[in-house]
Amino acid sequence: MIILIIVLVGLCIASFIETTAYRVSRGISLIHPPSFCDSCQKRLKIYDLIPVVSYAILGGKCRYCKAKIPFRYLLIELLIPSLYVFIYLNYKNIYSFFLLSYLLTILTYMSMLDIDSGYISFIDIGLLYLGSIGLIVLSYIGLIPKGVSFYLYGALTGLALILLSFLIILLIKKKIPMGTGDLLVIPAVTIFFGFRGALTVLITASVSGLFIGIALILFGVVKRNYKFPMIPYITLGVIMEILLFQH
To answer: Fewest beta carbons within 10 Å, which of 15, 103, 127, 190?
Structure first.
């Protein structure tokens, strides 16, 4: 029963962050207008908006104009609840479950924003730091397994590595390699994983970003001067750390 609740909540949250990211990145109000097709602007019915189910029934196309619905929406609707269930089953501490689920949710939302607009606001970054503060408070009062120093080492490791890479690229290429937002995001993420986990997250993000970036350029999907979003790769690093190492 608990698993079913987690899945249903995960589906609702996935659908919500998809809608929020779409609207925020395009400057559309979160309240009005109601959900609509991006291609034909037709207002969508409630039965067109059921996570996963509607996509499957409609064959990944708009009911009205038959335009393709981006596959990433289905991917996120499957990924979020699956990760929630994995964390719940493998992390025995309920507070860890909520903290990691929160982190993945915010990172997924920010990844969509980064891909769509390349802009992450300080409010979005503040949501990450809200989770970081909760982590430290829960650690301090002993409600999660590891001590405060473990998490602070993670934050400092992430900050040190990202500043080092920032300076190296700046010296070599003579230009600023990333935005201020990217610099602020890293320690708010790596704080969750300690020293070793921070290394794993950042190495995974760097390697995956390198190979995916090269592949996209070689296949002509993007041009050489394309500014690749950074947060999706950080999110991938976090997912790998959670799936393979933390528990």
So the answer is: 127
For residue 145, say if its preceding peptide bond is cis, omega within 30 degrees of 0: no
Let me know whether 152 and 215 are in one domain: yes
The answer to whether 186 and 162 are in contact (CB under 8 A) is: yes
Q: Looking at 91-243, list the stretches that DSSP marks H as alpha helix, in order from N- to C-terminal side.
A: 94-116, 122-140, 148-173, 180-190, 194-218, 231-241
Residue with tokens 């037709």: 42
Q: What one-character DSSP code corresponds to residue 246? A: I
Query: Helix, strand, or coil here: 83?
Result: helix
Of 77, 102, 134, which residue sits at a domain end?
A: 77
> Where in the sequence is the domain holding 48, given as residue range(s)?
7-77
Is residue 59 left, alpha or beta, with left meaning phi > 0 and alpha meaning psi from -120 to 50? left
Q: Is residue 1 in some structural domain?
A: no
- Would you tell me how many other CB atoms lie within 10 Å of the CB of residue 89? 12
* Overall domain count for the chain: 2
pLDDT in tens, 49-62: 889 999 999 898 99
pLDDT tens track for 207-245: 998 898 888 888 877 787 777 788 999 999 999 999 988
pTM for the whole structure: 0.91
In the beta sheet, which residues pair with residue 242?
A: none
Host H or E run for residue 19: helix 2-25
Pair (101, 207) in one structural domain:
yes
In a domain, 177, yes or no: yes
